[in-house]
Amino acid sequence: METLDAAELLSALGHESRLAVFRLLVESGAEGMNASAIGEKVGLAPPTLSFHLAHLSRVGLISGRQEKRYIFYSANYPLMDDLLAFLSSNCCQGKACLPKVAALGRRPGPARPKG
Prior knowledge:
Layout: H1 3-13, H2 16-28, E1 33-34, H3 35-42, H4 46-59, E2 62-67, E3 70-75, H5 77-88, H6 99-103
Antiparallel strand pairs: 1-3, 2-3
Helix pairs in contact: 2-4
């Protein structure tokens, strides 16, 4: 991942509402959630939610799929994985220095998306 690409993704996540939406979608798994359920969970009005979903979609962090009259949004796990790998590459000269990652039983770097 290029530095400018990472900066764009981090900028998108740098807004409280977009970060809340993205974290909710990460938690929801590959099936994702429909927009109205997202709005209810994070407490955003439909126009505001639409704006934030569009921004996250534009940078590629989420994607939407139409099912009947609903749009279901889900996190882009491979891109999230790339961003995490970029942030933790060459971390601490290869030493175990991320205790929260270690507590989860993971190492920094490539992880496989679930689902």
